[in-house]
Amino acid sequence: xxxxxxxxxxxxxxxxxxxxxxxxxxxxxxxxxxxxxxxxxxxxxxxxxxxxxxxxxxxxxxxxxxxxxxxxxxxxxxxxxxxxxxxxxxxxxxxxxxxxxxxxxxxxxxxxxxxxxxxxxxxxxxxxxxxxxxxxxxxxxxxxxxxxxxxxxxxxxxxxxxxxxxxxxxxxxxxxxxxxxxxxxxxxxxxxxxxxxxxxxxxxxxxxxxxxxxxxxxxxxxxxxxxxxxxxxxxxxxxxxxxxxxxxxxxxxxxxxxxxxxxxxxxxxxxxxxxxxxxxxxxxxxxxxxxxxxxxxxxxxxxxxxxxxxxxxxxxxxxxxxxxxxxxxxxxxxxxxxxxxxxxxxxxxxxxxx
Length: 354
Ligand code: FES
Prior knowledge:
Elements: E1 12-23, E2 26-32, E3 48-55, E4 59-66, E5 77-82, H1 88-96, E6 102-109, E7 121-126, H2 130-143, E8 148-154, H3 163-172, E9 177-183, H4 184-187, H5 192-199, E10 206-210, H6 213-225, E11 233-236, E12 266-272, E13 275-281, H7 287-293, E14 311-316, E15 319-321, H8 329-333, E16 336-338, E17 342-344, E18 348-352
Parallel strand pairs: 7-8, 7-10, 8-9, 10-11, 12-18
Antiparallel strand pairs: 1-2, 1-6, 2-5, 3-4, 3-6, 12-13, 14-16, 14-18, 15-17
Helix pairs in contact: 5-6
The chain binds FE2/S2 (inorganic) cluster (FES).
InterPro entries: 2Fe-2S_ferredoxin-like_sf, 2Fe-2S_ferredoxin-type, 2Fe2S_fd_BS, Beta-grasp_dom_sf, Cbr1-like_FAD-bd_dom, FAD-bd_FR_type, Flavoprot_Pyr_Nucl_cyt_Rdtase, FNR_nucleotide-bd
Pfam families: FAD_binding_6 (PF00970), Fer2 (PF00111), NAD_binding_1 (PF00175)
Keywords: 2Fe-2S, FAD, Flavoprotein, Iron, Iron-sulfur, Metal-binding, Oxidoreductase
């Protein structure tokens, strides 16, 4: 296959070392990371990779897949892919991915990750939503001291990804890991009251939810009925990128939605990759677009406020996000913003990617 010459937009070429059929409609891909990229591809539990999938129609499309490997595990990075009906990326990977194939990949990103591995967690997964949950779960058990309760919902017993691995972990950590399976074939779709009853004993723990939209909405509503503070709950929404993150696009002026275009730009301090930079930031430019124009290697994936790959901390001053589909109240509380959607509000702003 002849692939188009791609500009340097932050992707790296990783070779698939193994494809594992996890269930009839899901596979996992193991990707080897060359020595010189180990630091760049170091990840936190719960983060995702953006893969470039070849497309005859558009050249390529970008798709985000959560890592199920845990940072402490030696060896390749691993993502799990479940076929989505009419989903181009997942079906292409399940049909074509093979050992030896080289994929173009953006470094790990995302904020669906626990701050501490020493606190007790409640994890709620539906279907392939187990992928980032698995990374968090393995990390806590291997390198932290927290206890885990996992509620894992699936269509039927044949669609339970990582069933054997979970059974093994539960056996190895009987005091720290409780796994509760829910099978739609046996019990029907879990309702809000049923999820509330199941999770009540662990309500109040920091909670991570990932799965199909309906499952996440029901789980989130269940926790609300139990009085759980929304700031305790992290939700990872699957997204399909509508633009190709590997294309270099002309940056577009931000629609500032009423933000006045002041004569004087904002003074901007940026901490990225261990270095500090200072700029005069025009008030009508989105932060990510501006940093890329300045030649900084700022991370990003979707550039549309839907993935959190561009997340950074505002450590001083204030910005305004024009669009946000992914950050939760718990993230905003920590000062996290999406650089691809942020325009300045105050005269001085400091941001950090550390
Ligand atoms: S790059 Fe995806 S949210 Fe900013």
